[in-house]
Specification:
Two copies of one chain form a homodimer.
Chain A (H helix, E strand, L loop, with lengths): L8 H6 L18 H10 L2 H9 L6 H17 L5 H60 L8 H9 L1
Helix pairs in contact in A: 2-4
Family (chains A, B): Belongs to the LOB domain-containing protein family.
Protein name (chains A, B): LOB domain-containing protein 12-like
Organism (chains A, B): Cucurbita maxima
Chain lengths: 159, 159
C-alpha cells in the first residue's frame, strides 16, 4: 500500500499487490493514474523500476518527473518526442546567437563612430578657431585700399 | 533475417528468429548492437515495437533516431536524461534573450543620441555662422577709434 491506504497507481494498473516498500508508491499516488500510465506506456514498468533502483532515494523524485516529462513529450509527438523540443530550442539558440552577434556588431560600429567623432572634435574646434582667424585677417585687410594687410606693410617698412 | 544475411541486432539480443518482415531489422543492423541495446534498456523492445507499429513507414527512421538519442541521454544522465538538455537549452535561451534585449536597448540609446545630434546640427551650423558674423562685426569695429562701426556712422549720416 506504500504510504497510503489504497494501492498506488502503478500497482493498481499492473493489478498486483502494493507492498509496503513498493518502489513506485512514493511517486505514483492512486489519485493520479495517468502519471504512471504514460511512463508505463513509453518506458515500461520494469524499466522504470530498474532505473529507480539504480538511483539513490533523494534523486528518485527528479528522475520520475523527468521520465513523466519525456513520456508526455513522446505521447504528444510520437516521432520526435523530447528531441523535437531539443531541436526547436537549439534552433532558437542559434537564431538568438546570430541576432546577438549582429546587435553587438552594430554597437561596436556605433562605439567606433563615437570614438572617431570625439577624436576629431578638438581638430574641428581648432579648424573653427583658424577659420575665425581668417575672418579676422580678412576683416583687417578692409583697412587697406589694395586689400593687403596694413600690418604687413608696416612690417615691410620696419624690416 | 530482415534485409541482411544475419539476424538484426534486436533479434540477436532477444535471441529470437529474425523474420523477413522484422520491424526492427531496417533500423538495427547486426553490426551496431549497441544502438538496439540502449533503446531496449530504456524503452524496452516491446514498447519500441509498439511505437514503431503505430507510425507510417516513412516516419520510423526519425522515430528510431530520436529514441536512440533519448536513450543515450538517459544512459549518460539517469536522473534527468533529455530533460537535462532541455533545461540547459531553456536557460541558454533566457540568457541570450536578456543579452539581446540589453544590446537592443543600447542600440536604441545610440540611435537616439544620433537623432538628437543630427537634429541639433543645423542649429550648431547657424550658431557658428552667427559667431563668424560677430567676428566680422567686431573686426569692422577696429576701423573706428571708439570701437563703434564706421558703417553705422555713415548710416546715421544718411538717415
Amino acid at each position: 500500500m506504500g504510504a497510503g491506504s489504497s494501492p498506488c497507481a502503478s500497482c493498481k494498473l499492473l493489478r498486483r499487490r502494493c507492498a509496503k516498500d513498493c518502489i513506485f508508491a512514493p511517486y505514483f499516488p492512486p489519485d493520479d493514474p495517468y502519471k504512471f500510465a504514460i511512463v508505463h506506456k513509453i518506458f515500461g514498468a520494469s524499466n522504470v523500476s530498474k532505473m529507480l533502483q539504480e538511483l539513490p532515494l533523494d534523486q528518485r523524485p527528479d528522475a520520475v518527473n523527468s521520465m513523466v516529462y519525456e513520456a508526455s513529450a513522446r505521447m504528444r509527438d510520437p516521432v520526435y518526442g523530447c528531441v523535437g523540443a531539443i531541436t526547436f530550442l537549439q534552433n532558437q539558440v542559434s537564431r538568438l546567437e546570430m541576432q546577438l552577434a549582429a546587435a553587438q556588431a552594430e554597437i561596436l560600429s556605433f562605439q567606433m563612430q563615437q570614438q572617431a567623432a570625439s577624436a576629431s572634435f578638438p581638430m574641428t574646434q581648432m579648424n573653427q578657431y583658424d577659420q575665425n582667424l581668417v575672418f579676422l585677417s580678412n576683416a583687417d585687410s578692409f583697412n587697406s585700399v589694395d586689400g593687403s594687410p596694413e600690418v604687413e606693410d608696416y612690417c615691410s617698412l620696419w624690416s
